[in-house]
Design a protein that fits this description.
Layout (H helix, E strand, L loop, with lengths): L7 E5 L7 H10 L3 E5 L5 H18 L4 E5 L14 E4 L4 E5 L9 E3 L3 H6 L5 E4 L4 E9 L2 E8 L1 E4 L4 E2 L12 H13 L3 E4 L5 H11 L4 E6 L2 H5 L1 H7 L2 E5 H7 L5 H15 L3 E4 L14 H13 L3 E4 L1 H4 L4 H17 L3 H5 L10 H16 L3 E5 L4 H8 L6 E5 L2 H6 L6 E5 L6 H14 L8 E7 L8 E9 L5 E5 L1
Parallel strand pairs: 1-2, 1-16, 2-3, 3-12, 5-6, 12-13, 13-14, 14-15, 15-16, 17-18, 17-20, 18-19
Antiparallel strand pairs: 4-10, 5-9, 7-8, 7-11, 8-9, 20-21, 21-22
Helix pairs in contact: 1-2, 1-12, 2-4, 5-7, 7-9, 10-12
């Protein structure tokens, strides 16, 4: 099951794809990581889906990643008499803490944090931004807002506050229960919704520990303001363009996408571009030309992965959507301009021996026209450093730790193989050459470069490079430093 592309595909599971046989078909079509949306997944279903993915993993003998996406805080208005009310532009509308049904002039808002944090002039967005208001007055009794863009407001519709940093963390009580269950099952990545600041990720880390890698979803304006800190404390990033485009002007999203991808790449953190990538394929077997260009843009920007949401969860054509995304990525990576675009902004290595070695391995491999870079990695750190360089040749990650291999399924260019640590450096070279040969990455006479840490099996000690050429049986015939 060797992929012929470097950018990975994340697919959301749902009613259209929960069946075990469908999960296997999706993996064959190109899925590298399966996303479970905890907003719509009861525990018994999550357990069945998790087991189905692990069964597929055993069937194909290839590590498969599982991403658990937590719901995060959700803010909604209260009930409205008659279920809906029309709000006219220029009118003043009130939000208060009363549980009495709302009407043309007011509605309950059962979220005291909003009353505490909102300020005059702040924007309120209702029903995914369809209705826009500006706060003109606030007191202990409520918030008065002027309707800027009117519409029909229905009971229990969502409200968001793009200008307001709310005094809450990203994990609700539901999230904590979901997280505990997911970690006990053994998911590989946890996606955090509603991240506003780096401290939110630090708080989540206290609960998650190293049980899973944390992927922070960038979907709030406040997160953009504290992006450096969020990246520093996260294991990966997701550009959640849907919510980001609700709370910010949509024309800003493409530029922010490039900014987030660039900064994540610079830090060596995997980054996923998500939301509405092939939206029309929910109901159509073919995408629009604009959607194809959108996926290709993420590829050219150097994103680690692209993600499908409703297309694979509830769409009519989940297999076709995966195959389409697979073809778009492959075509983008084969484009003559791909390498120049990918490296248009140089990402200098960080000032560590491990990063310097990863950068040197990339340079050596290019200079000598080697067939593959092979990295031994227990925790994934060596593989991440190599992927950060975006080398123009295959990268094979050899790990004795299954959970590490599963996590790396979301990382650019990684072909993960589960294998035990070699006994010594000579065995390390032999094993690397044999796997590169058996997996079809290197042919007789071709060379590979091997990156590892000595002593072998010691996490975080990337300090060695070896070069070897293969004989007719896949064994090393020449070795150097």
């Amino acid at each position: 099951m060797r992929r012929t592309r470097r950018v990975k595909i994340v697919a959301t599971l749902g009613p259209a794809s929960y069946a075990p046989e469908m999960i296997e078909r999706l993996f064959e079509a190109g899925v590298d990581v399966f996303r479970i949306n905890m907003s719509h997944s009861p525990f018994d279903l999550v357990k069945k889906v998790h087991a189905a993915v692990r069964t597929a993993e055993a069937h194909f003998s290839r590590p498969i990643g599982i991403l658990c996406d937590l719901q995060g805080p959700k803010f909604r208005v209260g009930n409205i008499a008659g279920e809906r009310v029309a709000l006219s532009e220029g009118a003043t509308f009130r939000f208060d803490s009363s549980e009495v049904e709302g009407g043309p002039q007011r509605v309950g808002l059962p979220h005291p944090q909003i009353f505490e944090a909102v300020e005059l002039g702040h924007t309120l967005l209702l029903d995914d931004g369809k209705i826009r208001m500006t706060v003109v007055d606030k007191n202990r009794a409520g918030i008065d807002a002027k309707v800027v863009v009117g519409g029909v407001l229905a009971s229990r519709k969502g409200i968001s506050l793009p200008d307001t940093v709310l005094p809450i963390g990203p994990l609700t009580e539901k999230d904590k229960r979901d997280l505990d269950f997911a970690l006990r099952l053994g998911v590989d990545w946890v996606a955090l919704s509603f991240v506003q600041r780096g401290d939110d990720v630090k708080l989540a880390r206290q609960l998650i520990g190293q049980g899973a890698w944390i992927m922070s979803k960038i979907e709030k304006p406040a997160a953009i303001s504290d992006l450096e800190s969020i990246i520093a404390h996260s294991d990966g990033l997701m550009v959640a363009r849907g919510d980001l485009g609700v709370e910010l002007p949509v024309e800003r999203v493409p530029g922010l996408q490039k900014q987030i991808v660039s900064k994540a790449r610079s830090a060596g953190k995997p980054v996923v571009v998500a939301t509405q990538m092939l939206e029309s394929m929910i109901a159509s077997p073919v995408p629009t030309r604009a959607e194809v260009s959108d996926v290709a843009t993420a590829v050219f920007d150097g994103a680690d992965a692209v993600m499908l949401s409703a297309e694979s969860a509830v769409g009519k054509y989940p297999i076709e959507a995966i195959r389409t995304m697979d073809r778009i990525v492959i075509e983008g990576e084969n484009d003559p301009s791909y390498s120049a675009l990918l490296h248009a902004t140089r990402t200098p290595p960080q000032a560590t021996a491990a990063d310097a070695i990863a950068a040197a391995a990339h340079t050596i491999a290019d200079t000598l026209k080697l067939a593959a870079i092979i990295c031994y990695t227990a925790t994934g750190s060596t593989a991440l450093r190599v992927a950060r360089e975006r080398p123009g040749l295959p990268v094979i990650a050899l790990s004795p730790v299954l959970t590490t291999a599963r996590k790396l399924a979301a990382v650019w260019g990684m072909h993960c193989v589960l294998t035990s640590d070699p006994e010594n450096q000579a065995a390390m070279v032999r094993k690397a050459c044999r796997i590169a040969f058996d997996e079809g990455f290197a042919r007789p006479g071709e060379g590979v470069i091997i990156v590892a840490g000595v002593p072998l099996g010691s996490p975080g000690t990337t300090n060695m490079v070896r070069i070897a050429h293969l004989d007719d049986q896949g064994n090393p015939v020449a070795e150097g430093v």
